[in-house]
Write a structure and sequence with these properties.
The structure is a homodimer. By secondary structure, the first copy, chain A, is α/β, with parallel strands linked by helices. Chain A contains 14 helices and 18 strands.
Chain lengths: 427, 427
């Protein structure tokens, strides 16, 4: 008997029939002797419908109270938990639903992007011990003053992992509309391969690079509290063999467990992000504090910065580059021209919003200096010019012209043998 | 400056534009110097949509958990309060919304028909004192264990009146899609007249007789806590003169205030109910306990009984009659035939589902014995046969063949001079 948390996304909860499928699947786990806590999202489209009503009332979304937005948006999940409880009861499985505030899932007061501070497991445990399935709203909690808060888009993943941590679940199963984590996007590379395992550090790099399977904070939580988390498909037959299901998808594991495996691949996947734009301040006097003088005003304008690159200075000046989301390119260029260029004494501001980022990610690359050279060699052979390079311990990212993105991803996927099963050293 | 509660029904909250109208109206009251608490219903159709989802999941509604139904249904009002807060903020009026559990509005644990036990006014008062409009969900509360409960259909009226009582509001204004309480249904009698005032006892009789303007429990609350309650139209221009608006509709007052008025009419209105069915057990042995033996099994079958009539016995037997909703006629007849007839030794069970009930209601009739005779005379002249009669202190009800209903209502309305303004003694 295991204690597991199941999380189901909006698509899995998208209709009466799908909710009944989820109930069948959960009931199967209960019949197999497991204790199950379920964290469902709002029915697909519901959160958008609710926030759309608010936006119709106040076209100027900027001055809309985030507290009231959370009051409204949180109802989508509350409906889901009630419906799923009814679906389970209808097939003879005892179940009870809770809104975040009833558990309670306590968060800070940052409406629309709250962070979970604590989860009381008393009520959940009592119901589990009484033989019930416990269904808890994802995406939301309650602050110290009793106000409803939400965790931001995709927050139900974080709720599920956090609840799994609080009740010390054996595993957190994230049921979604893909059947696992792939070596790269199968829409770009046909023979992209599903990974049976991935470390949470790799997942973190891949999530932040746009793999979009899991909300990044849920991965951080999984790492921090060492929650064994599995991403698997909710589109399979709910009555499929439970052991097959329990071993499907991709398991997110921990590095210390992984390094014991001889079959560790050097690179786990090729991630990419289409929506980049790069900006460079040319010939900035290389004096202390200049980086802050540049990025301070950018942050103040609420522009998120992704990569930051500054190279060795020449003749007392340096070129300072960073990338932003393409949607914020114009705004960023304006801030640089009006507020920063003169203040830091840069010669010129140049930018390009026709770029993308491609990254090779893998916990195994730490001890393999050859990864970078194979990556650069592959791109060179494919005729792709590298505009910027940035590296972390387990990833190498390059900025290239966006029209070469698919080509670069395909060639790298091939070069790192990612279409083959895991291997012993390849580079 | 007054402290008022505004209640808006589902139709008034039925679209983005209507919610903006409600905001305009509330803002007008605030600008005029009043403190306002608003209790809005769910957007029209929303509660049905939500409960419809639950019914689609479990066709057999009988074994559906009422706790989960409340979890689902209560979200409709939560969305409304958030949207109204945003609408008020958009026009520069400070506002904050609360779900029932946040106030808290404490109820007993009777899901789907909970009763309010207490309302904490601290949070509401603090916000009012800070110059905010406070918006509280109608229809719902929270039990001692922190479960969400709902008050049953129309419960938002009760929420509004209860909150008005808790904060000692000067008046509770129920904005609805009719412009007040009428002497009878204007669709039946063209010159039905709006009453400027009605006592809460009269309103009670009229509500239970099907006037349907206010949930009956809200009227009980208004009476018990002496909440001055006004029923008025939400379909007027939201920017209409506030003094005109504040004196429009129908004010529900208290008898002791009313009796000081010389202009008290004997009869305030003619109420009616189309959906009646009558059942009679013929020649029941007149022994102690027989009424319970009959109504016990009926109640056990969850059939609501309206009128109950038992006349003087003749030769040791009596005829026992009662009326039920027409929808429950067949079920009631079955229970009587199979479980009751033999057990009480009745000779025969006869029934008729082609009847209706017409009532004359008025606090003034207590001291006017002539009311009954004028009523019976009027019906006789109109050729309407009276099948059953039942009276309370302030009403006389008759059961008649349903095809005569409109005729009876029109003739009685005329006979009691209800199309005239209030008068000094007429009978």
């Amino acid at each position: 008997m295991a204690l597991v948390v199941h999380k189901y996304g909006g698509t899995s909860m998208g209709s009466v029939e799908r909710i009944q499928n989820v109930a069948q699947r959960v009931a199967k786990w209960v019949k197999a002797g497991h204790q199950v806590v379920v964290v469902p999202s709002a029915m697909s489209g519901e959160t958008n419908r609710l926030l759309g009503l608010a936006k119709d009332i106040n076209k100027d979304a900027a001055d809309m109270s985030p507290r009231e937005m959370d009051m409204i948006a949180s109802t989508g999940e509350q409906v889901s938990v009630g419906l799923l409880a009814i679906a389970l009861q209808a097939i003879g499985t005892d179940a009870v639903s809770y809104a975040g505030w009833q558990v309670p899932v306590k968060t800070n007061n940052a409406y629309m992007k709250a962070r979970i501070e604590s989860i009381d497991d008393k009520r959940i445990r009592a119901d589990l011990d009484a033989g019930r399935v416990v269904i808890v709203t994802g995406f939301q909690g309650v602050d110290a003053q009793g106000n409803i808060t939400t965790l931001g888009r995709g927050g139900s993943d974080t709720s599920a992992v956090a609840i799994a941590a609080a009740i010390k679940a054996d595993e957190c199963l994230i049921y979604t509309d893909v059947d696992g984590v792939y070596t790269t996007d199968p829409r770009v590379v046909e023979n992209a391969r599903r990974l049976e395992k991935v470390t949470f550090e790799e997942m973190l790099e891949m999530a932040s690079l746009g793999s979009k399977i899991l909300q990044i904070r849920s991965v951080e939580f999984a790492g921090k509290y060492r929650v064994k988390t599995r991403v698997l498909s909710s589109l399979t037959d709910p009555m499929m063999d439970i052991n097959t299901e329990a071993n499907s998808g991709t398991l997110i594991t921990f590095e210390d467990e992984e390094t014991q495996s001889m079959e560790q691949a050097v690179i786990s996947g090729i991630a990419f992000n289409r929506d980049e734009a790069k900006i460079t301040l040319m010939q900035v006097p290389d004096t202390p504090g200049v980086a802050f003088k540049i990025l301070g005003p950018v942050a103040k304008a609420n522009i998120d910065v992704d990569m930051i690159i500054q190279n060795q200075s020449t003749n007392g000046t340096t070129d300072f580059s960073f990338t932003v989301h393409r949607n914020e390119y114009k705004k960023a260029m304006e801030v640089l021209e009006t507020e920063i260029k003169g203040a830091v004494g840069a010669k010129e501001v140049i930018g390009d919003d026709k770029v993308c980022k491609v990254s090779a990610v893998g916990i195994g690359m730490r001890s393999h200096v050859g990864v970078a050279s194979l990556m650069f060699e592959t791109l060179s052979k494919a005729g792709v010019n590298i505009q910027m390079i940035s590296t972390s311990e387990i990833k190498i990212s390059v900025v290239i012209e966006d029209k070469y993105m698919e080509l670069a991803v395909r060639e790298l996927h091939k070069a790192f043998d990612l279409d083959q099963a895991a291997q012993i050293e390849s580079v």
